[in-house]
Prior knowledge:
- By secondary structure, this protein is an alpha+beta fold.
- The chain has a single domain, classed as Aminopeptidase (3-Layer(aba) Sandwich), CATH 3.40.630.
- 29% of the residues lie in helices and 31% in strands.
- The chain is built from four helices and seven strands.
- The chain has helices spanning 12-20, 31-39, 79-93, 108-116; strands at residues 5-6, 43-48, 52-59, 62-70, 98-104, 120-125, 135-141.
- The protein has a seven-stranded mixed β-sheet with strand order 1-2-3-4-5-7-6, sandwiched between helices.
- The longest helix has 15 residues, at 79-93.
- Bound molecules: coenzyme A.
- Coenzyme A is lined by residues 22-23, 68-70, 75-81, 103, 107-110, 112-113, 116.
Amino acid sequence: MTEIEPASLAHSDALAAIHAACFPPTDRWDAAVIATQLSLPGTLALIAPDGGMILARAIAGEAEILTLAVIPTRRRQGLGRALLSAAMTEAARRGAAVMFLEVAAENHPAHALYAAAGFRPIGRRRRYYANGGDAVTMGRDLAEK
Ligand SMILES: CC(C)(COP(=O)(O)OP(=O)(O)OC[C@H]1O[C@@H](n2cnc3c(N)ncnc32)[C@H](O)[C@@H]1OP(=O)(O)O)[C@@H](O)C(=O)NCCC(=O)NCCS
């Protein structure tokens, strides 16, 4: 059973290594970027040391997923779902009533994961990403968490 632990500044390198294994070079967050995110108010970070991470922010009753990554050799084993669920639980514990996220329109694995976790499309942001791709905004209530 995979352990999921709270992550702190001391995990910045480990979080960046997982992120780098999951995103193209232009979209990677290095340890300095992750450390900056971790130092912002309301940031919530969880790590599965064997290959997964999630960063979210919960502030003023609303939460947002910042990034979610599972290394290729650990995919389709429920780790992404477990990280997302743990982040929702922690955001709800911190008082968030809703959670939002943005996902690339063509990212079918992530869409499937979020839809299975109860997120519904809210809107579309045209040419949101550097590669010209659209983002889909999704959200769900956390009341039942
Ligand atoms: C998206 C990502 C985090 C999913 O992680 P994962 O650990 O493989 O996901 P899980 O094993 O928990 O999958 C949970 C459910 O999501 C859906 N899903 C996940 N990957 C899928 C895929 N490749 N194709 C179709 N459905 C998929 C399925 O419904 C799956 O349940 P099932 O395996 O019982 O069918 C992972 O693919 C990843 O890191 N991708 C690159 C980074 C990324 O795109 N992050 C999200 C940015 S918004």
